[in-house]
């Protein structure tokens, strides 16, 4: 049954491949930009990373400066102030990204202590977050301490205390602890930590959500018109990549070529749906 169907479709198949070869040959620079920015970044099982992010398989014109993503050891990363932040998920409609500190991934005693520092030109802290302060190598017991843990490192055992509220006296200033690092966590994770139903590690690895400081209205209009959001690398302004060309705001649905494949090769789509049966 299936081979019969394929046989009867064979002439159609060759027409389709002929058509698609022609289409590929006629791809212009603008089509390439549209095609390139149509692809999301997919790294280590985290997919759907798109505008304003670029990098890996997305050209720099598919995103905005500062939003470069690298696929490092099979995880998508953003590098900010010399720290890698691991992307856990993105939400295009918010728009937001949930990240965790890579230096804290699977350890709460990284080799060097660095505070979380966000580039506020690109991101902002979303609501629903709590600052978790981690104190290292303290030699007195902090009364407000919630959870403590010991890390085994190359430099011996290190004790870590985590606190979700601010202390009246800074234990580092008083000399009771050697270091402190501030890491935002979801407030739900902070509450779970207070209730002793999660670990410092799991709270930190759960990451935190950052809002993206971008004009989402502009990008949504472009997408609704059938385009892909991007950057005009000449002017640094917004660019909406469409099937026929790049526009400054939205696609022109009535311009020649704007409908691309859909209008000129209806067979292609019909055949595709037959073959899926
Ligand atoms: C998009 O552009 C990037 C960078 O130039 C390139 O590595 C990638 O292969 C391109 N992808 C497609 C589908 O053309
Ligand atoms: C982040 O980028 C800076 C400069 O490009 C580089 O020196 C640093 O090693 C990067 N950090 C990580 C963790 O990859
Ligand atoms: C994405 O963000 C929107 C707006 O903040 C929210 O309503 C929605 O639930 C979020 N989606 C996911 C999957 O978290
Ligand atoms: C982190 O920031 C706090 C104040 O915001 C500061 O006291 C502390 O020394 C910083 N820690 C590191 C490791 O820079
Ligand atoms: C956490 O601390 C940073 C400064 O280190 C501050 O900008 C941010 O607003 C604080 N977040 C919360 C939820 O208190
Ligand atoms: C520990 O206690 C001693 C003596 O009270 C003090 O000199 C030192 O600064 C304290 N702090 C640390 C981090 O060792
Ligand atoms: C938290 O839970 C752990 C094990 O689940 C237990 O050993 C520890 O005593 C608890 N700590 C507090 C402060 O309740
Ligand atoms: C970039 O902007 C210039 C000036 O407005 C325009 O001529 C050019 O076509 C634009 N290119 C893209 C890719 O949007
Ligand atoms: C859209 O394209 C048509 C056909 O080329 C043209 O007449 C019209 O002016 C264009 N509209 C816009 C807003 O660019």
TrEMBL record:
Q: Which GO terms describe its molecular function?
A: polysaccharide binding; protein serine/threonine kinase activity
Query: Which Pfam family, giving just one, matches this sequence?
Result: GUB_WAK_bind
Question: What's the protein called, per UniProt?
Answer: non-specific serine/threonine protein kinase
Q: How does it sit in the membrane?
A: Single-pass membrane protein
Enzymatic class: transferase
What are its GO cellular component terms?
A: membrane
- The question of whether Electron transport is a record keyword is answered with no
What is catalyzed by this enzyme?
A: L-seryl-[protein] + ATP = O-phospho-L-seryl-[protein] + ADP + H(+); L-threonyl-[protein] + ATP = O-phospho-L-threonyl-[protein] + ADP + H(+)
Predominant location? membrane
Question: What EC number(s) has UniProt assigned to this enzyme?
Answer: 2.7.11.1
**Keyword entries, A-Z:** Glycoprotein, Signal
From which source organism is this entry? Prunus dulcis (Almond)
Q: Where is the Wall-associated receptor kinase C-terminal domain?
A: 173-245
């Amino acid at each position: 049954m299936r081979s019969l169907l394929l046989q009867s479709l064979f002439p159609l198949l060759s027409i389709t491949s002929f058509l698609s070869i022609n289409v590929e040959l006629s791809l212009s620079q603008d089509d390439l930009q549209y095609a390139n920015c149509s692809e999301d970044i997919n790294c280590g099982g985290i997919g759907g990373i798109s505008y304003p992010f670029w990098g890996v398989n997305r050209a720099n014109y598919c995103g905005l400066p500062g939003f470069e993503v690298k696929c490092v050891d099979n995880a998508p990363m953003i590098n900010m102030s010399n720290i890698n932040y691991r992307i856990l998920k993105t939400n295009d409609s918010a728009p937001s990204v949930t990240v965790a500190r890579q230096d804290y991934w699977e350890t709460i005693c990284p080799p060097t202590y660095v505070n979380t520092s966000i580039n506020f030109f690109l991101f902002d802290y979303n609501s629903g977050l709590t600052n978790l302060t981690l104190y290292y190598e303290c030699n007195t017991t902090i009364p407000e301490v919630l959870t403590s843990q010991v890390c085994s490192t190359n430099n011996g055992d290190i004790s870590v205390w985590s606190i979700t509220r601010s202390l009246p006296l800074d234990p580092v200033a008083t000399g009771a602890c050697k270091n402190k690092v501030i890491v935002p966590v979801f407030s739900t994770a902070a509450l779970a930590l207070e209730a002793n139903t999660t670990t410092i590690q799991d709270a930190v690895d759960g990451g935190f959500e950052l809002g993206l400081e971008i004009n989402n209205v502009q990008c949504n209009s472009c997408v609704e018109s059938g385009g892909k959001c991007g950057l005009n690398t000449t002017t640094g302004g917004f660019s909406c990549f469409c099937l026929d060309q790049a526009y400054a705001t939205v696609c022109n649905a009535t311009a020649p070529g704007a409908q691309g494949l859909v209008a000129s090769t209806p067979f292609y789509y019909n055949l595709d749906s037959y073959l899926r049966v």
